[in-house]
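hey
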């Protein structure tokens, strides 16, 4: 199955949020294990995780927790997901390493997404955004130089917004 989502390539936490989108009505990639397999593959996790019901439940819990953190500034759910793992630090012959240590592998993708959100919040929390188009539910990490990006995609939502504004002025 090909990834049907309209917006790909965001950091893992936001990519997980973007498994829900609007296209002819609400869509959700994670309604079943087959959709989970698509997301795991797109996220580069298919070699490290199994697409099964337990992993799906964990990933759905992480998606909900990440959404609550980004939209409502609540963090209890995110902390619950993070309780399933830790970062193991070591000094090796090649230098320092940070390795995820998630004993229950069903929680690995969920934990990695939650951990990724922590990194984004540390780097630039104000650059985590939801698309400004009123009918769009997608998220993005603003990497523009001045940090003023408003839409997940200028080619879709940005153009629609500008066209609607233009026609409203003419009407």
């Amino acid at each position: 199955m090909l990834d049907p989502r309209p917006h790909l390539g965001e950091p893992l936490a936001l990519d997980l949020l973007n498994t829900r989108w609007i296209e002819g009505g609400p869509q959700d990639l994670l309604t079943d294990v087959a959709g989970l397999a698509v997301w795991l593959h797109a996220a580069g996790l298919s070699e490290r995780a199994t697409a099964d019901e337990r992993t799906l439940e964990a990933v759905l819990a992480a998606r909900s927790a990440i959404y609550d953190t980004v939209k409502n500034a609540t963090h209890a759910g995110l902390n619950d997901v993070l309780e399933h793992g830790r970062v193991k630090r070591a000094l090796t012959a090649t230098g320092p390493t940070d390795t995820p240590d998630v004993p229950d592998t069903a929680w690995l993708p969920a934990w990695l997404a939650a951990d990724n959100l922590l990194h984004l919040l540390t780097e630039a929390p104000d650059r985590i955004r939801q698309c400004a188009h009123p009918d769009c539910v997608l998220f993005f990490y603003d990497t523009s130089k001045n940090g003023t990006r408003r839409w997940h995609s200028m080619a879709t939502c940005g153009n629609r917004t500008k066209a609607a504004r233009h026609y409203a002025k003419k009407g």
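The two ends are 43 Å apart (CA to CA). The chain is about 45% helix and 15% strand.
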